[in-house]
Amino acid sequence: MTETSGDLRVGIVGVGAMGADHAERVAHRVSGARLVAVSDADAARAGDLAARFPGVRAVTDPLALVADDDVDAVVVASPGAAHEEQVLACLEAGKHVLCEKPLTMDGESSLRVVRAERAAGRPLVQLGFMRRFDPEYARLKAVLDSGRLGRMLLLHNTHRNKSVPDTFRSEMIVRDSLVHEVDVARFLFGEEITEVTVYSPAPTSAAAEGVVDPQVSVFRMQGGAVVTNEVFVTNQVGYEVRCEAVCERGSAMAGRPWADLYTTVAADDGEGLWGGGVPADFLGRFARAYDLELQAWADASRRGEVVGPTTWDGYAATVVCEAGMRSLTTGEPASVTLVDPGPAS
Ligand code: ISE
Question: How far is the CA of 293 from the centre of ligand 1 (A)?
Fold first, then answer.
Protein backbone atom coordinates (compact mmCIF):
# COMPACT_ATOMS: atom_id res chain seq x y z
CA MET A 1 0.00 0.00 0.00
CA THR A 2 1.30 3.50 -0.78
CA GLU A 3 1.17 5.88 2.15
CA THR A 4 -0.33 9.30 1.77
CA SER A 5 -0.82 12.06 4.31
CA GLY A 6 -4.59 11.39 4.17
CA ASP A 7 -4.22 7.82 5.43
CA LEU A 8 -6.40 6.76 8.32
CA ARG A 9 -4.00 6.12 11.21
CA VAL A 10 -5.25 2.94 12.87
CA GLY A 11 -4.62 1.57 16.35
CA ILE A 12 -5.58 -1.97 17.32
CA VAL A 13 -6.57 -2.89 20.85
CA GLY A 14 -6.21 -6.62 21.51
CA VAL A 15 -3.84 -8.55 19.28
CA GLY A 16 -4.76 -12.18 19.84
CA ALA A 17 -5.53 -14.24 16.72
CA MET A 18 -8.16 -11.85 15.33
CA GLY A 19 -6.40 -8.60 16.20
CA ALA A 20 -3.07 -9.85 14.84
CA ASP A 21 -4.79 -10.90 11.63
CA HIS A 22 -6.32 -7.42 11.33
CA ALA A 23 -2.89 -5.85 12.02
CA GLU A 24 -1.45 -7.70 9.03
CA ARG A 25 -4.45 -6.64 6.96
CA VAL A 26 -4.29 -2.95 7.89
CA ALA A 27 -0.54 -2.88 7.40
CA HIS A 28 -0.50 -4.58 4.01
CA ARG A 29 -3.89 -4.89 2.36
CA VAL A 30 -6.16 -1.99 3.29
CA SER A 31 -5.61 1.03 1.11
CA GLY A 32 -5.89 4.48 2.65
CA ALA A 33 -5.10 3.11 6.13
CA ARG A 34 -1.88 2.84 8.09
CA LEU A 35 -1.22 0.77 11.21
CA VAL A 36 0.39 3.03 13.82
CA ALA A 37 -0.10 1.41 17.24
CA VAL A 38 -1.14 -1.81 18.95
CA SER A 39 -2.01 -2.68 22.53
CA ASP A 40 -2.73 -5.90 24.40
CA ALA A 41 -3.25 -7.04 27.98
CA ASP A 42 -0.18 -9.18 27.28
CA ALA A 43 2.41 -6.43 26.74
CA ALA A 44 4.98 -8.86 25.35
CA ARG A 45 2.54 -10.02 22.71
CA ALA A 46 1.88 -6.41 21.65
CA GLY A 47 5.62 -5.70 21.62
CA ASP A 48 6.39 -8.75 19.47
CA LEU A 49 3.65 -7.87 17.01
CA ALA A 50 4.66 -4.20 16.77
CA ALA A 51 8.25 -5.25 16.06
CA ARG A 52 7.06 -6.96 12.87
CA PHE A 53 5.82 -3.68 11.41
CA PRO A 54 8.28 -0.78 10.99
CA GLY A 55 7.10 2.38 12.71
CA VAL A 56 4.32 0.70 14.70
CA ARG A 57 4.29 1.41 18.43
CA ALA A 58 3.24 -0.93 21.24
CA VAL A 59 1.22 0.97 23.83
CA THR A 60 0.68 -0.62 27.25
CA ASP A 61 -2.59 1.06 28.20
CA PRO A 62 -5.39 0.51 25.65
CA LEU A 63 -7.12 3.70 26.77
CA ALA A 64 -3.91 5.64 26.13
CA LEU A 65 -3.92 4.21 22.61
CA VAL A 66 -7.49 5.38 22.13
CA ALA A 67 -6.64 8.87 23.40
CA ASP A 68 -3.45 9.14 21.34
CA ASP A 69 -3.61 12.12 18.95
CA ASP A 70 -1.70 10.11 16.36
CA VAL A 71 -4.47 7.49 16.23
CA ASP A 72 -7.47 8.43 14.06
CA ALA A 73 -9.50 5.24 14.40
CA VAL A 74 -9.45 2.07 16.48
CA VAL A 75 -10.05 -1.64 15.91
CA VAL A 76 -11.28 -3.22 19.16
CA ALA A 77 -10.36 -6.90 19.05
CA SER A 78 -9.83 -7.45 22.78
CA PRO A 79 -11.88 -10.00 24.78
CA GLY A 80 -15.58 -9.06 24.92
CA ALA A 81 -15.45 -8.12 28.61
CA ALA A 82 -13.17 -5.18 27.77
CA HIS A 83 -15.29 -3.82 24.92
CA GLU A 84 -17.66 -1.52 26.78
CA GLU A 85 -14.95 0.60 28.38
CA GLN A 86 -12.84 0.73 25.22
CA VAL A 87 -15.68 1.53 22.81
CA LEU A 88 -17.05 4.19 25.18
CA ALA A 89 -13.56 5.73 25.30
CA CYS A 90 -13.50 5.84 21.48
CA LEU A 91 -16.91 7.53 21.44
CA GLU A 92 -15.72 10.01 24.05
CA ALA A 93 -12.71 10.79 21.86
CA GLY A 94 -14.92 11.05 18.74
CA LYS A 95 -13.00 8.25 16.99
CA HIS A 96 -14.31 5.70 14.52
CA VAL A 97 -14.28 2.12 15.80
CA LEU A 98 -14.49 -1.33 14.32
CA CYS A 99 -15.59 -3.47 17.28
CA GLU A 100 -15.34 -7.23 17.04
CA LYS A 101 -18.32 -9.17 18.32
CA PRO A 102 -19.74 -9.37 20.92
CA LEU A 103 -20.42 -5.66 21.33
CA THR A 104 -20.42 -6.26 25.10
CA MET A 105 -21.22 -9.16 27.41
CA ASP A 106 -24.86 -8.31 28.21
CA GLY A 107 -27.84 -6.40 26.89
CA GLU A 108 -27.71 -3.61 29.45
CA SER A 109 -24.12 -2.67 28.71
CA SER A 110 -24.70 -2.97 24.94
CA LEU A 111 -27.62 -0.58 25.29
CA ARG A 112 -25.36 1.86 27.15
CA VAL A 113 -23.04 1.82 24.14
CA VAL A 114 -25.94 2.37 21.69
CA ARG A 115 -27.09 5.32 23.78
CA ALA A 116 -23.58 6.77 24.16
CA GLU A 117 -23.16 6.69 20.39
CA ARG A 118 -26.49 8.46 19.93
CA ALA A 119 -25.47 11.03 22.51
CA ALA A 120 -22.21 11.58 20.61
CA GLY A 121 -24.40 12.91 17.81
CA ARG A 122 -23.05 10.83 14.94
CA PRO A 123 -22.49 7.15 14.19
CA LEU A 124 -18.93 6.03 14.88
CA VAL A 125 -19.08 2.26 15.43
CA GLN A 126 -19.10 -0.61 12.93
CA LEU A 127 -19.66 -4.10 14.39
CA GLY A 128 -17.38 -6.92 13.28
CA PHE A 129 -20.03 -9.17 11.75
CA MET A 130 -17.84 -9.98 8.77
CA ARG A 131 -20.28 -12.42 7.13
CA ARG A 132 -22.17 -9.41 5.73
CA PHE A 133 -19.06 -8.66 3.65
CA ASP A 134 -18.50 -12.25 2.47
CA PRO A 135 -19.16 -12.21 -1.29
CA GLU A 136 -21.42 -15.28 -1.10
CA TYR A 137 -23.53 -14.04 1.82
CA ALA A 138 -23.71 -10.60 0.17
CA ARG A 139 -24.95 -12.19 -3.09
CA LEU A 140 -27.48 -14.25 -1.18
CA LYS A 141 -28.78 -11.07 0.44
CA ALA A 142 -29.01 -9.38 -2.98
CA VAL A 143 -30.92 -12.34 -4.48
CA LEU A 144 -33.35 -12.37 -1.55
CA ASP A 145 -33.86 -8.61 -1.74
CA SER A 146 -34.47 -8.79 -5.51
CA GLY A 147 -37.70 -10.67 -4.78
CA ARG A 148 -36.98 -13.28 -7.49
CA LEU A 149 -37.36 -16.14 -5.05
CA GLY A 150 -40.39 -14.71 -3.31
CA ARG A 151 -40.78 -14.40 0.44
CA MET A 152 -38.22 -16.25 2.60
CA LEU A 153 -39.90 -18.90 4.73
CA LEU A 154 -37.02 -20.76 6.33
CA LEU A 155 -33.29 -20.36 6.82
CA HIS A 156 -31.00 -23.27 7.73
CA ASN A 157 -27.59 -22.33 9.12
CA THR A 158 -24.67 -24.70 9.65
CA HIS A 159 -21.64 -23.55 11.65
CA ARG A 160 -18.85 -26.02 12.43
CA ASN A 161 -15.39 -25.52 13.83
CA LYS A 162 -12.66 -28.13 13.83
CA SER A 163 -11.90 -27.71 17.52
CA VAL A 164 -11.93 -25.22 20.36
CA PRO A 165 -9.94 -25.00 23.61
CA ASP A 166 -11.40 -26.79 26.66
CA THR A 167 -12.15 -23.35 28.10
CA PHE A 168 -14.76 -22.81 25.35
CA ARG A 169 -17.85 -23.73 27.38
CA SER A 170 -21.45 -24.31 26.28
CA GLU A 171 -22.46 -20.65 26.82
CA MET A 172 -19.58 -19.53 24.59
CA ILE A 173 -20.96 -21.67 21.78
CA VAL A 174 -23.98 -19.38 22.01
CA ARG A 175 -22.23 -16.06 22.64
CA ASP A 176 -19.19 -16.47 20.36
CA SER A 177 -20.34 -18.83 17.63
CA LEU A 178 -24.16 -18.78 17.37
CA VAL A 179 -23.95 -14.98 17.50
CA HIS A 180 -22.89 -15.02 13.83
CA GLU A 181 -26.04 -16.93 12.87
CA VAL A 182 -28.05 -14.41 14.88
CA ASP A 183 -26.61 -11.65 12.76
CA VAL A 184 -27.04 -13.62 9.52
CA ALA A 185 -30.72 -14.23 10.30
CA ARG A 186 -31.36 -10.57 11.18
CA PHE A 187 -29.37 -9.42 8.12
CA LEU A 188 -31.01 -11.74 5.58
CA PHE A 189 -34.57 -11.29 6.87
CA GLY A 190 -34.19 -7.62 7.75
CA GLU A 191 -36.24 -8.39 10.87
CA GLU A 192 -35.70 -8.94 14.55
CA ILE A 193 -35.65 -12.35 16.25
CA THR A 194 -38.42 -12.69 18.80
CA GLU A 195 -37.75 -16.10 20.37
CA VAL A 196 -34.90 -18.57 20.71
CA THR A 197 -34.87 -22.22 21.68
CA VAL A 198 -31.61 -24.08 22.16
CA TYR A 199 -31.65 -27.90 22.10
CA SER A 200 -28.89 -30.00 23.62
CA PRO A 201 -28.34 -33.24 21.71
CA ALA A 202 -26.08 -35.92 23.21
CA PRO A 203 -22.59 -34.38 22.92
CA THR A 204 -19.79 -35.67 20.75
CA SER A 205 -17.22 -37.71 22.66
CA ALA A 206 -14.67 -35.14 21.43
CA ALA A 207 -16.31 -32.32 23.45
CA ALA A 208 -14.70 -31.20 26.71
CA GLU A 209 -16.29 -32.62 29.86
CA GLY A 210 -19.67 -30.95 30.50
CA VAL A 211 -19.80 -29.04 27.21
CA VAL A 212 -22.96 -29.27 25.12
CA ASP A 213 -21.63 -29.67 21.59
CA PRO A 214 -23.24 -29.80 19.04
CA GLN A 215 -26.14 -27.46 19.77
CA VAL A 216 -29.24 -27.04 17.64
CA SER A 217 -31.29 -23.89 17.96
CA VAL A 218 -34.40 -22.39 16.48
CA PHE A 219 -35.13 -18.70 16.03
CA ARG A 220 -38.58 -17.33 15.45
CA MET A 221 -38.51 -14.17 13.36
CA GLN A 222 -40.79 -11.17 13.82
CA GLY A 223 -42.67 -12.01 10.62
CA GLY A 224 -43.26 -15.62 11.70
CA ALA A 225 -40.48 -17.34 9.71
CA VAL A 226 -38.30 -19.95 11.39
CA VAL A 227 -34.50 -20.33 11.36
CA THR A 228 -32.71 -23.54 12.30
CA ASN A 229 -29.08 -23.51 13.39
CA GLU A 230 -26.56 -26.24 13.97
CA VAL A 231 -23.46 -25.10 15.81
CA PHE A 232 -20.84 -27.81 16.28
CA VAL A 233 -17.46 -26.56 17.44
CA THR A 234 -15.57 -29.85 17.71
CA ASN A 235 -16.31 -31.50 14.36
CA GLN A 236 -12.65 -32.61 14.06
CA VAL A 237 -12.70 -31.90 10.31
CA GLY A 238 -12.42 -28.18 9.65
CA TYR A 239 -14.37 -24.96 9.35
CA GLU A 240 -17.72 -25.43 7.63
CA VAL A 241 -20.11 -22.51 7.46
CA ARG A 242 -23.06 -22.46 5.10
CA CYS A 243 -26.71 -21.61 4.90
CA GLU A 244 -29.74 -22.28 2.77
CA ALA A 245 -32.63 -19.87 2.39
CA VAL A 246 -35.92 -21.53 1.49
CA CYS A 247 -38.35 -19.18 -0.22
CA GLU A 248 -41.82 -19.39 -1.77
CA ARG A 249 -40.46 -19.77 -5.30
CA GLY A 250 -36.98 -21.19 -4.87
CA SER A 251 -34.03 -21.59 -2.57
CA ALA A 252 -30.45 -20.32 -2.44
CA MET A 253 -27.32 -21.43 -0.63
CA ALA A 254 -24.16 -19.73 0.52
CA GLY A 255 -20.99 -21.55 1.53
CA ARG A 256 -21.59 -24.69 -0.55
CA PRO A 257 -18.73 -27.11 0.18
CA TRP A 258 -18.71 -28.33 -3.40
CA ALA A 259 -18.13 -24.81 -4.71
CA ASP A 260 -14.51 -25.28 -3.68
CA LEU A 261 -11.80 -26.40 -6.09
CA TYR A 262 -12.61 -29.82 -7.51
CA THR A 263 -9.65 -32.15 -6.94
CA THR A 264 -8.84 -35.80 -7.44
CA VAL A 265 -6.24 -37.64 -5.44
CA ALA A 266 -4.72 -41.13 -5.63
CA ALA A 267 -5.64 -43.29 -2.64
CA ASP A 268 -3.67 -46.14 -1.12
CA ASP A 269 -6.26 -48.75 -2.08
CA GLY A 270 -6.00 -47.70 -5.73
CA GLU A 271 -9.60 -46.43 -5.94
CA GLY A 272 -8.84 -42.70 -6.20
CA LEU A 273 -10.79 -40.02 -4.35
CA TRP A 274 -12.34 -36.75 -5.42
CA GLY A 275 -13.24 -33.70 -3.40
CA GLY A 276 -12.17 -30.25 -2.32
CA GLY A 277 -10.52 -28.75 0.72
CA VAL A 278 -12.05 -27.71 4.03
CA PRO A 279 -10.56 -24.52 5.50
CA ALA A 280 -9.03 -25.03 8.93
CA ASP A 281 -10.63 -21.98 10.54
CA PHE A 282 -12.54 -18.76 10.12
CA LEU A 283 -9.42 -16.71 9.39
CA GLY A 284 -8.99 -18.73 6.19
CA ARG A 285 -12.65 -19.16 5.22
CA PHE A 286 -13.52 -15.51 5.74
CA ALA A 287 -10.20 -13.90 4.74
CA ARG A 288 -11.82 -12.10 1.81
CA ALA A 289 -14.76 -11.01 3.97
CA TYR A 290 -12.39 -9.52 6.56
CA ASP A 291 -10.45 -7.69 3.82
CA LEU A 292 -13.63 -6.20 2.40
CA GLU A 293 -14.93 -5.39 5.89
CA LEU A 294 -11.78 -3.52 6.92
CA GLN A 295 -11.55 -1.71 3.59
CA ALA A 296 -15.18 -0.60 3.85
CA TRP A 297 -14.57 0.53 7.44
CA ALA A 298 -11.44 2.51 6.54
CA ASP A 299 -13.10 4.15 3.53
CA ALA A 300 -16.21 5.07 5.50
CA SER A 301 -14.18 6.34 8.47
CA ARG A 302 -12.21 8.64 6.19
CA ARG A 303 -15.51 10.03 4.90
CA GLY A 304 -16.76 10.39 8.49
CA GLU A 305 -19.43 7.71 7.95
CA VAL A 306 -20.29 4.22 9.20
CA VAL A 307 -21.27 1.36 6.88
CA GLY A 308 -22.28 -2.20 7.68
CA PRO A 309 -23.51 -3.52 11.01
CA THR A 310 -24.16 -0.95 13.73
CA THR A 311 -24.25 -0.79 17.53
CA TRP A 312 -27.97 -1.60 17.28
CA ASP A 313 -27.06 -4.83 15.46
CA GLY A 314 -24.52 -5.55 18.21
CA TYR A 315 -27.09 -4.83 20.93
CA ALA A 316 -29.78 -6.98 19.29
CA ALA A 317 -27.33 -9.86 18.85
CA THR A 318 -26.28 -9.65 22.50
CA VAL A 319 -29.89 -9.75 23.70
CA VAL A 320 -30.71 -12.72 21.45
CA CYS A 321 -27.64 -14.57 22.77
CA GLU A 322 -28.68 -13.84 26.35
CA ALA A 323 -32.04 -15.43 25.57
CA GLY A 324 -30.15 -18.31 23.94
CA MET A 325 -28.11 -18.84 27.09
CA ARG A 326 -31.31 -18.91 29.18
CA SER A 327 -32.81 -21.48 26.84
CA LEU A 328 -29.61 -23.53 26.95
CA THR A 329 -30.15 -23.85 30.70
CA THR A 330 -33.88 -24.53 30.71
CA GLY A 331 -34.42 -26.22 27.34
CA GLU A 332 -37.48 -23.98 26.97
CA PRO A 333 -38.11 -21.24 24.38
CA ALA A 334 -36.83 -17.85 25.60
CA SER A 335 -38.33 -14.63 24.33
CA VAL A 336 -36.30 -11.68 23.14
CA THR A 337 -37.18 -8.16 24.27
CA LEU A 338 -35.35 -5.24 22.72
CA VAL A 339 -35.50 -1.85 24.42
CA ASP A 340 -35.86 1.32 22.38
CA PRO A 341 -32.69 3.33 23.07
CA GLY A 342 -34.53 6.61 22.66
CA PRO A 343 -33.93 9.43 20.19
CA ALA A 344 -30.49 10.49 19.00
CA SER A 345 -29.44 13.73 20.65
C1 ISE B 1 -14.99 -17.27 16.84
O2 ISE B 1 -14.91 -16.36 17.90
C3 ISE B 1 -15.56 -16.63 15.66
O4 ISE B 1 -15.97 -15.50 15.67
C5 ISE B 1 -15.74 -17.51 14.51
O6 ISE B 1 -16.25 -16.84 13.40
C7 ISE B 1 -16.64 -18.63 14.90
O8 ISE B 1 -16.77 -19.54 13.83
C9 ISE B 1 -16.07 -19.39 16.06
O10 ISE B 1 -16.95 -20.43 16.40
C11 ISE B 1 -15.88 -18.44 17.24
O12 ISE B 1 -15.28 -19.11 18.29
Answer: 16
